[in-house]
Amino acid sequence: MRGACSRFGLRPCVLLVLLLVFTAAVHLVAAEAAPAKTNLVIGLLLPPEEPQAASVRDGVQLAVEQANKTPGPRVSLVVRGRVGQWGADAQEAARMALDDGATALIAPPDGGASHLVLQVSGRTAVPVVSLCPDSSVSRAGVPWFARLVPRTVDEARVLFSNFNSAPVQIGRWAAFVPPGRPGRETANDLKEAAVLARTSLGPIIEITFSNREAAVAVVMKTNAQAVLVWLDPKPAAECVKSLRGASFPGPIAGPIRLHTPEFVANAGNSLDGFFLPGLLLGEASQERFQAFQTVFRLQFKREPDISAAFSFDAAALLIQTIRNTEPEALIRSLPSDLAFPGVSGILAFDANGNRKLPLQVLIFENGSFAPLRAIGE
């Protein structure tokens, strides 16, 4: 995409991007539609400690801005999160629906906060899209729910299955997970994935600020052949460096959310040979993703990560669904009836609202993540 910009000049490239980047069935018009009364409000809950907050916020904001360049009701964005010593995310989630008049809600990657948004959705019948990979969020039973990101089970399963079929099979894994409730949810999903992939998983160690080196020592004493580092970018990078520093000989892998410049920068020279699940995009989807990257760079002056792309699609999905569905019919519509092109691939869902998203395995080599070459290639 950068090459296309340099060949054709900035102005044609931007026009191409604007034609591609908004992922619904409508086309962008040459001039912005006439102002209309705002009657669509997207509510986004972002706890202050959310590691991916900037990417999530910017991705949603970009989708709202692109939507407002197309015909239809204008859209506004409300972002809330816990504020002050006595603030509560539950209160902020409720205020978006009750005080801000949110027409739809976006739940963050954090599992606890995502469940709070789902509770509000269940009481108010406001549609919700979640960015949380925990399997538990799709079991909340809210009337209109979609999960934009792949489940932890699906991500781990594609990694396990890849190494089950490798020339030197990996059948014994260890895992590092966050402490507390997030770690328990992650551990449950990783165990399910291991059963489905017919591999062995253990030990599963909760990583805190002070026990990283001890956790690495435990892994080195076990018979684990590979390690999953299922953490946020900064602690994941530190664990990768510690494992490499201890000369751990086997593969190290993590979730798709680690496909971010922050993780790459923090892990440094320790990252070579690190594995991730990655999007498996067709040609048209790849063009939309590249177009999104170009627009994001122009607006925010930094590289987008995968969380920004998922967040853009979350907002685009909600906006198009609400614009194209009569209000009284919305609560009876199902995400499984939808399928339209997004920047992270086709937005299609199963009967439980889980994203049907094909994945491949990526490996970090020569300074970037690239698809893992097939055996014998």
Low-confidence stretches: 1-37
Shape: globular
The helix count comes to 13
- Measured by DSSP, the beta-strand proportion falls in 15-25%
Order of SSEs: HHEHEHEHEEHEHEHEHEHEHHHEEEE
Rounded to the nearest angstrom, the radius of gyration is 21 Å
The largest sheet is:
7 strands, mixed
- Strand order in space, largest sheet: 7-6-8-9-10-13-14
Structural category: alpha/beta
Helix content: 40-55%
pLDDT averaged over residues? 86
Description:
This protein is 42% helix and 18% strand. It has 377 residues and is an alpha/beta fold. Strands 7-6-8-9-10-13-14 form a seven-stranded mixed sheet, sandwiched between helices. Strands 2-1-3-4-5 form a five-stranded parallel sheet, with helices on both faces. It has a two-stranded antiparallel ribbon with strand order 11-12. Helix 3 packs parallel to helix 12 (306-323), helix 6 (152-164) packs across helix 7 and helix 9 runs parallel beside helix 10. The radius of gyration is 21 Å and the shape is globular.
Please specify the SSE layout and strand pairing.
Layout: H1 2-8, H2 10-21, E1 38-45, H3 53-67, E2 74-80, H4 89-98, E3 104-107, H5 111-124, E4 128-130, E5 145-147, H6 152-164, E6 172-177, H7 180-197, E7 200-206, H8 212-221, E8 226-229, H9 233-245, E9 252-253, H10 261-267, E10 274-279, H11 283-300, H12 306-323, H13 327-330, E11 339-342, E12 345-348, E13 359-365, E14 368-371
Parallel strand pairs: 1-2, 1-3, 3-4, 4-5, 6-7, 6-8, 8-9, 9-10
Antiparallel strand pairs: 10-13, 11-12, 13-14
